[in-house]
Every structure is written in structure tokens, then in C-alpha cells.
Amino acid sequence: MLAPFATHAQTDCLSCHGDATIKDDSGHNIGVDGQKFSASIHGSLKCNDCHADIKDYPHPEHLAPVECSKCHSDEQDKLKGSVHADGKEHPCTSCHGDAHSIFPKADPRSAVYPLNVPATCGKCHGDSGEGRKHGLSSVLPNYMDSIHGFALSKEGLLVAANCQSCHGSHGILSHTNPASPTFKANIPKTCGSCHAKIDMDYEDGAHGKAIAAGKMKAPVCTDCHTAHAILQPTESAFRMQSTPICGSCHKDKLSTYRDTFHSQLGSLGGYVETARCWDCHGAHKILPASDPSSPIAPANLVVTCGRCHAGANASFVRYQPHANAHDRKLNPALYFVRLFMNLLLASTLTFFVIHTILWLVRARYDQIKKKSAEGDHHA
Prior knowledge:
Blueprint: H1 10-17, H2 34-39, H3 47-50, H4 73-80, H5 91-96, H6 117-125, H7 129-133, H8 140-144, H9 147-153, H10 163-167, H11 187-192, H12 196-204, H13 206-212, H14 221-225, H15 236-247, H16 251-257, H17 261-266, H18 277-281, H19 301-306, H20 332-378
Helix pairs in contact: 12-13, 15-16
């Protein structure tokens, strides 16, 4: 009669499973590296602590899937309500790696160690076959090229945001779920868990107050910085795209800005230091001109403009960066100057068109008259 399995050490299992090439009937590799398993977080467990249907040695050929929830019930409960709940592959091993070599998250060998998280998530959310198989968008390349990805992969900063920092780990929810950290209204607090001062400034600004009031059309962090391809704000690429980003909501201000010296100088391409929206209005704590703390409040304009224009004075700051020549109520002088110039141009063009037509008529008349006179002379 076969002895109970519990009396056998792991070495008995490894006598078969220690072969790295061993496979089951479906072709899955069922080999186990004994050294890695012993060093893993599960190294102190017996094989049938997880493979509960193994009662004897040797065991039946077909075994039930391992139930991690026996020990990890909290994580299992969170997973049930997450976007990964219906994953066909085993959700635990998909993220934590081979079940026999799972290491604590603080261990550099772990698949969920901060430096390794992007590659782990990237198995599905990258350019690999897994991502295409599940119809998932590829976000890993964007992340790796971002300021967060660079800080993590190039500088080795474990505090840099990775996938788990923003999306969570087991209870990952869709961005459309109000409980998700990536739901629009929650994004400022999610980013604010690292960028605390910026979050405070944002909440004190017009955009933050609008979001707090339930106005979901107001921008949050990801509207301006994107979610994954986040650039360093001092980079020329970000500065060049920042004005169109603001203009996507403030279309009237964008059109008037484009008529200014600042915009036309910046549009030449190389002048990245030309004033953009946030150079004057601020980046996060954006306040209306009526607020005394705003950089565009009348009392603060000399200081604001003086950051670029040394010697700026009260006369200098009378310049209107968003003057609208089409708005008679807001800019009457500019409106009538534009109207006069347009009428002058139209009148001048009309005069010369009529002059040219009359000149052609007169020239043709003279030509006919001359030919008629020459005909009479020959007769």
C-alpha cells in the first residue's frame, strides 16, 4: 500500500519534477527548480499544501488547479471585482510569475518588484503577442519613454510611479468606475499621492474647483500631461504642444493668442522659450484675473511680464495678449481700426479693379478708333 503523501519530503516530488524538460499531456512544462522553490516565499510549504488533491504518492495524472485563495483570501476578493477577474490564464501566476519561484515584492527577483512591474504588466499591455491576443492597447512603450519610465528604468528610482502606483494591484478597476483611482474625478488625488504640493495647488485653482463641483469637462492631470507618455515639462516637445492642449478647451483664447508676437515667434519652431499659456497663467494653481493672487491680476502684471521682459513697467503691461479685433464691446478701438483697415483695403482694391477695367475699355476703344482711321486713310 502506498504511504501517505505527507510522510514524503519535497525531494520525492523533485525526483520527477526536478527534470526541467518534463511536460504534462497538454504540453505545459511542469518542471520545478528545487533551489528556486526553496528560496521562494513558498519554500517552507509542502507540495500538497497547494496541490490539495494529492493524497498519495505517486499522485493522479490530472490535478485540480491550485486555489491561491486558501491563503490569500483578501487578494482573491479584490481580484473578483477587478478588470482581471475573467482572465483565462491563472491571474496570480500571470503577474507573480512561476508559482514555484514567487518572491516577496521587496525582493529584486520578484516579478512585482518596482523595477520589474512595467515588464510584468507589459506582457499583456505591450507589443507582445499576449497584448494582441487580448485586444489590449500597447501602453508599455509610451510609459518607458516617459519621465516616470526613465526615472525607474534608467535612474533606478524605486519611488517613481509604475503601473501599480496608479492602477493598484489586485483590485484594478476600469477608469469608468467611480471607485477607480484612474476615474477622472480621482486622478488629482492619485497623482497627488506623489505630487502632493502640485495637488494642493491644483485644488486651489479654477480647474480643481470645477472638478470638485462636479464639472467633469474641466481638465485633470492626464488631460494636460497624458496618462502614460508623460514628458518632462521643461522639454521643448512639451512646451511646443502645451498651447494647443490649453487651446483644446479655450478655443477663443487660442485664436487670439495666435495673432500675437509670442505665438508667431514660437511657431517658427526654434523659439521654445517664448511665453506659453502657463508661463503667464501658472501651471496648476490657475486663478482668474480678478483674484489678487493670480499672476495676471492687474497689480501683479509688472512682475509676471518682468520675468521675461526686464524693465517692464505699468505702461508696458497695458499690452493685451488676448485682444480680439472681432469683439467691439471688449476692444472697441481695435475693432474700429480693423474695420477701417478692411474698408480701406476693400475700397483700394475696388478702385483699382474699376480703374483697370475702365483702362482696358479705353485702350480697346482707342485701338478700334485707330484702326478705323487707318482704314479711311487707305481708302
